[in-house]
Amino acid sequence: MSNNLSYETVFHELEQTVHALEAGDLPLEQALSHYERGMVLAAQCNQLLQNAELRVQQIINGQLISTE
User: Fold this and answer.
1) Does residue 55 or residue 16 have the better pLDDT?
2) For 8-41, what is each residue's pLDDT tens digit?
3) Rounded mean pLDDT of 50-62?
4) Are 31 and 19 in contact (CB under 8 A)?
5) In the chain, domain spans
């Protein structure tokens, strides 16, 4: 998966993966594959959120510095 995908795109794929697992009708190997993919997607979502939080903090700090 490309690092250029949006949070929304990655989260949507994560939701689809979770729904497939929750349905409970996957063979074991396929369920394990979905679970592994879901863990990768969850980590990617978390990283994207952390990056966004860092950008917000940088914006806030930049605005505070420029108004002083």
Assistant:
1) 16
2) 999 999 999 999 999 999 999 999 999 999 999 9
3) 90
4) no
5) 7-67
> Cα separation of 19 and 23, whole Å?
6
CATH topology of domain 7-67: Helix Hairpins (1.10.287)
Closest by CA to 42, choosing from 5, 3, 15, 21, is: 15
Distances (CA, A) of 7 to 38, 51, 59: 14, 11, 20
- Return the pLDDT at 3: 61
Angle of helix 28-67 versus helix 7-23 axis, rounded to 10: 150
Cα dihedral 16, 21, 26, 27 in deg (nearest 10)? 130
Predicted pLDDT at 65? 57
